[in-house]
Every structure is written in structure tokens, then in C-alpha cells.
Design brief:
The complex is a heterodimer of chains A (325) and B (268). Helix content of chain A is 31%, strand content 29%. Chain A has 325 residues and is an alpha/beta fold. In chain A, α3 packs across α4 and α4 crosses α5. Chain B is an all-alpha fold and 268 residues long. Helices cover 77% and strands 0% of the residues of chain B. In chain B, α2 runs antiparallel to α3, α2 packs parallel to α6 and α3 packs parallel to α8. Classes of the chains: A alpha/beta (325), B mainly alpha (268). At the A-B interface, α2, β6 and α3 of A face α1 and α5 of B.
């Protein structure tokens, strides 16, 4: 049995004040997520990611299609006992403290007062909210702290399936690393994680499989490394202490050269030139490697191409329009 | 049932931490105190004035609480998106609506109780300082238990207003919900006039319309027995029972409609 099963999910909104016209935010989305997977749900802003997650949480109702979580239709109150959900840019009752919020939510899951207290304390420890901070009202929390509280409330009931909508949003680099390790930990515990992101590197670091949505449609699904769209097109080396005469000697091998500062350059290599060999040559002249990164399409590049392929129908919702994400 | 009570407790906690009910209760207490001072200036009528003003203060400040918190009960959750996390928990939408309603009724009950205690305290003091001869001239005892009948009906009336505010809150903005609730409250107080519309207007459609509104809008004037209680006039127990029953039936109908509206609502 799939952990999440989505079949032809479509969502239309009526837009316009006087003359209502339909707007399709999600168009026939079908996919399955297997138990124990970390599944990345990728797409640029406005692609339909949050719409899909809201449909799965039954915060909105589909125009057509259906979805199941753990074999039960979405909206089934019993199924919600076994799932966790972190909304995008979450907002919680700011008159409550983090401790009170988590205890309140734990009570809604049916835990006793003492069990709710224990779970709240354990999870606040897990997300790094110290004993003093957790007794402050949430109105005094930063965006990153709220995100941490949001992640903690997602895990209150030891959920089998966890839905995270842009979980890295608002987090500093340390927080992002912690969330990444938490997601991997959840996978190791056998839980299914379905997370949406518009950042490709998050998916690369975590996901066993991904789906890419563009303009409300499923554009691709599978392993990220297998997707042609995201194949490496070349390499970018940032080199320091690179003398001009050395640079002149290797220019023929390069696609592009950008001077960052004196003797510090970003060099773009085509895929067929192995970066190791060039790197060995350069370091022999006294140059230093600062960074080496693969060059590949971003989600935005991919999306622009899909718009061209699908035509008007794949156009993303207008910026600022809340029907998409 | 447990989920409903947790939601209700959270609403109560919110209103307590927002301090609005405290301020309103404080104002009510001040008003009652002012009525006591006013009573000093009107020989022989002081106890009636205090009862009148006290009951009116309970009704008016209760109305403010019912409307101004009631209109935000659902819409604030939707606007601020706190509902996203809440509805992903194992609770149903009807439980959410009923829990929210119960929470505000709990808040109202606490406030009405505070105001009632304050009113009885003032009346107790007045009774204490009066001579037996002056007390015997009163229509009703100073610390009159029958005040609780009037306060009870005011409370049921406030429960209806809360249900109306909650109903509008399920699909409209707080401002519109406030205007509609207040409008309905005003119309509800003149409902008896709509019943007798045929005696002053000949147009049949207008009479039908008035009758329709009469049967749809709650008859708030039925809950007002302040004059009878203050002047020591009898109010039949059957009347109070029927009015309370009417109020509860109206509340149940409003909650059912609120649940139906809310059940299919999209949170964009």
C-alpha cells in the first residue's frame, strides 16, 4: 500500500470580482509515494505545491480527482492521527507559549496532560528551543524560531507520514542543516516524508524520489539524478591566486571566465573536460581551489522550458495570487 | 467531545490574554458603582436605578464581548492561517465550530458572573445601609434572587448573539460580520413590530416580507424581563422556560447552519 496516493487531482478557483472566471491551480496531478521514502515535491513559486498539500490536508476541496493517505481518503479524521503537517510560513497562536501550543496540539491528539507535557518538552529540546524561550509567548519569536516550533508540532504524534511545506523557509544555515538531519533521521525511523521546496539542493541532499510541478501540472517524476533536465552541463571552479599567464594558457579549455577580484576567477568548464586534470595543472602553478560545483539547470530554467513545451496552459499563476503557492 | 473542550479552553485562554473581557468587566463594575452614586441623588428610587443600570450594563458589555470576539472566532483563524495547523489535527470541522462557540460562551459566562457578583455586592451594601423602614418601601428586596432570572435570559440572549456572530464569521470579514450581527440584534429587538405589520400596512407583499423576517430573525425582546424583575412584577416560570427553549433551538439551528457553511469552505 502506498503511503500517499494521488489520482487526477485537479483544483479550479473562481477568480475576478464581478466577472468570475475559472483558474486552474492544479491540473490532473497523479503520483504515488511509497512508505519510508523522502519524496521531494519541487517546483518554482506558484507551481501548485502548496495547493497540493492543502488538498491533501483537506484545507481545500478538489474540483476532481482523489487522494489517499495510508489507504484512507484525505479528510479522514482517523488518518490525521497518523500524519504530521507543517504549513508554509506557519502561524500559531501568538498569545500561547511554545510549550502551551505543543501541549494544546498534543491534547487534540488525545494524549493526557502529563503525556502532552512530556512530548512537548522532548520535541522542543529536539528543535533547539531552550527551557527559558519555550515559556515565552510566540509573539516574541523570530521567524526561524516559529519554524522550529512548527517542525516540533508536526512530530507530536510520532506520525507515519510527514508533510512539510517549504520546511527550510526562514531558517539560518545552521537551522537548515539541522532540519536536513532531522528529515534523514525520520527516514531512518521508517517514516515517510513528503516535502515541498523550490530549492533544488535541498532535494538533492535528501530525496529518494522527486516530482516536479510546473504551472499546476506534473512535469517530471523519478530520481533527481535520472532526470535529463537536471543533468550536469559542466563545472564551475572558483580559483584564487591564478596568475594571468596561467589563465591565458588554459583559456581554450574554458566556456566562460569571470574575474571576481584580482587573481580570483570563476571558470566554467564544459562537461567533457574533467575538472580534476585542470585542477591538478592549476595547483601546480600555485593557484588554490576555492570551490568546485556542477552546473545544471535550476528549477526556474526547467520551468521556463516546460512553459514553452506546454504553451499557455502551463503558465504559472500570477505572482501574488494566492491560489497557487 | 474532548477535542471540543480543548478548543473551547483555548478560546477562553485567548480572550483572557487579550484582556478585552477584563476591560469590559471593569467598565461594567465602574458603571454599577456610578449607578450607586446616582442612586444617592434620587430619594427612594436608588435600588431600582441600580438594578436597572446594573442589568443594562451586563447586557451591553456582554453584547460587546459577544460581537467583538465572536466575529473573529473563525475569520481570524483563517486570516492568520493558524487554522492550517489546527485542522490537520484529528478534529473535524463541526468540532472546530462547536469548540469555538463553547469557548466564547465560557468567556461570556465568566464575564457575566463577574458583573453579577459586582451588582449583588452593590445591592447588598445598599440594603445594609438602609433602614428597615426604607427597605420595606421597596417593590422587591434589594438582594433579589429574581435578578438571576433576568440575568439568565440576558445570558441566553448573548449566547444567541454569539451564535449569530460565529455564523457570519464562517464566511465573511470581521467588519461585515460585526455590522450584520449588530443589525440583526437591532432588528431582533423590534421583532414584535414586524409581527403586527399588517395592522399598519395594506401591501400584502410587504406584510409577507415582514412576517418572513419576523420568523427568521430571533425575537430578542422576549428575553428582556428587566422591567418586571426590577419592579417586582411576576414572570411565569413557564414563560422563562419557553424563552430559554426558544433560545437554545435558535442557537442549535445557527450552529448547524454554521457547520454546513464551514464544512465545504476552501482555505486559500
Amino acid at each position: 500500500m502506498a503511503a500517499i496516493s494521488i489520482d487526477g487531482l485537479t483544483k479550479d478557483y473562481q477568480v475576478g470580482f464581478w466577472r468570475k472566471r475559472p483558474y486552474r491551480a492544479l491540473d490532473g496531478l497523479s503520483l504515488e509515494v511509497q512508505p519510508g521514502e523522502i519524496f521531494g515535491f519541487l517546483g518554482p513559486n506558484g507551481a501548485g505545491k502548496t495547493t497540493t498539500l492543502k488538498l491533501l490536508m483537506q484545507l481545500i476541496f478538489p474540483t476532481s480527482g482523489r487522494a489517499e493517505i495510508l489507504g484512507r481518503p484525505v479528510g479522514d479524521v482517523g488518518a490525521r492521527q497518523r500524519i504530521g503537517y507543517l504549513p508554509e510560513n506557519p502561524y500559531f497562536y501568538d498569545y500561547l507559549t511554545a510549550e502551551e501550543l505543543l501541549q494544546y496540539f498534543a491534547n487534540l491528539f488525545g494524549y493526557s496532560r502529563s503525556e502532552a507535557r512530556t512530548r512537548a518538552a522532548r520535541l522542543l529540546d529536539r528543535v533547539g528551543i531552550g527551557a527559558e524561550r519555550r515559556r515565552q509567548q510566540l509573539r516574541k519569536y523570530s521567524k526561524g524560531m516559529i519554524q522550529r516550533v512548527g517542525i516540533a508540532q508536526t512530530l507530536l504524534n510520532d506520525p507515519e507520514v510527514i508533510f512539510l511545506d517549504e520546511p527550510m523557509s526562514g531558517l539560518d544555515p545552521l537551522g537548515r542543516r539541522e532540519v536536513r538531519s532531522l528529515i534523514l533521521e525520520l527516514r531512518d525511523q521508517g517514516r515517510t516524508v513528503f516535502f515541498s521546496s523550490h530549492i533544488l539542493s535541498d532535494a538533492e541532499a535528501l530525496c529518494s524520489r522527486v516530482a516536479v510541478v510546473a504551472g499546476g501540472r506534473l512535469a517530471a517524476t523519478g530520481r533527481l539524478s535520472d532526470m535529463l533536465a537536471f543533468e550536469i552541463r559542466g563545472w564551475e571552479l572558483v580559483i584564487a591566486d591564478l596568475r594571468p599567464e596561467v589563465l591565458a594558457r588554459i583559456t581554450g579549455q574554458l566556456q566562460k571566465t569571470t574575474e571576481i577580484s584580482p587573481q580570483r576567477y570563476a571558470l566554467e568548464l564544459p562537461l567533457q573536460v574533467p575538472p580534476e586534470r585542470l585542477l591538478a595543472d592549476l595547483t601546480a602553478t600555485g593557484a588554490r581551489l576555492v570551490s568546485l560545483n556542477p552546473i545544471r539547470d535550476t528549477l526556474e530554467d526547467f520551468f521556463v522550458r516546460r512553459v514553452a513545451e506546454f504553451g499557455e496552459g502551463a503558465r504559472a499563476p500570477r505572482k501574488g495570487f494566492d491560489a497557487g503557492d | 467531545m474532548r477535542a471540543i473542550s480543548w478548543i473551547a479552553v483555548n478560546v477562553f485562554k485567548e480572550s483572557v490574554r487579550d484582556r478585552v473581557p477584563y476591560n469590559l468587566a471593569l467598565f461594567a463594575v465602574l458603571l454599577i458603582a456610578a449607578s450607586f452614586l446616582l442612586g444617592q441623588l434620587t430619594a427612594g428610587q436608588d435600588v431600582k436605578i441600580i438594578k436597572d443600570l446594573g442589568l443594562a450594563a451586563i447586557a451591553v458589555f456582554g453584547l460587546f464581548i459577544a460581537i467583538f470576539i465572536g466575529i473573529g472566532l473563525v475569520s481570524k483563524e483563517v486570516e492568520r492561517r493558524s487554522i492550517y495547523s489546527l485542522l490537520s489535527k484529528p478534529i473535524s470541522r463541526p468540532q472546530f465550530i462547536v469548540g469555538k462557540y463553547a469557548g466564547l460562551v465560557l468567556t461570556l459566562a465568566a464575564n457575566v458572573a463577574v458583573m453579577t457578583v459586582a451588582l449583588y455586592a452593590v445591592l447588598g451594601y445598599l440594603t445594609y445601609i438602609q433602614t428597615p423602614a426604607a427597605r420595606s418601601a421597596w417593590d422587591a428586596p434589594g438582594v433579589d434572587p429574581r435578578l438571576l432570572e433576568a440575568i439568565g435570559l440576558i445570558f441566553v440572549e448573548l449566547m444567541i448573539v454569539t451564535a449569530i456572530a460565529l455564523f457570519f464569521s464562517t464566511f465573511s470579514t470581521p467588519l461585515l460580520a460585526a455590522a450584520l450581527t449588530f443589525g440583526l440584534f437591532i432588528v431582533g429587538h423590534f421583532n414584535t413590530d414586524l409581527k403586527n405589520f399588517d395592522k399598519i400596512v395594506d401591501s400584502l407583499p410587504a406584510v409577507w416580507l415582514a412576517r418572513g423576517v419576523y420568523h427568521t430573525v430571533p425575537d430578542f425582546s422576549a428575553f428582556d424581563i428587566k422591567t418586571e424583575v426590577v419592579h417586582g412584577l411576576p414572570v411565569a416560570a413557564g414563560y422563562i422556560g419557553t424563552t430559554v427553549g426558544y433560545g437554545f433551538a435558535y442557537i442549535a439551528a445557527l450552529l448547524v447552519v454554521s457547520v454546513l457553511v464551514f464544512a465545504r469552505r476552501d482555505f486559500k
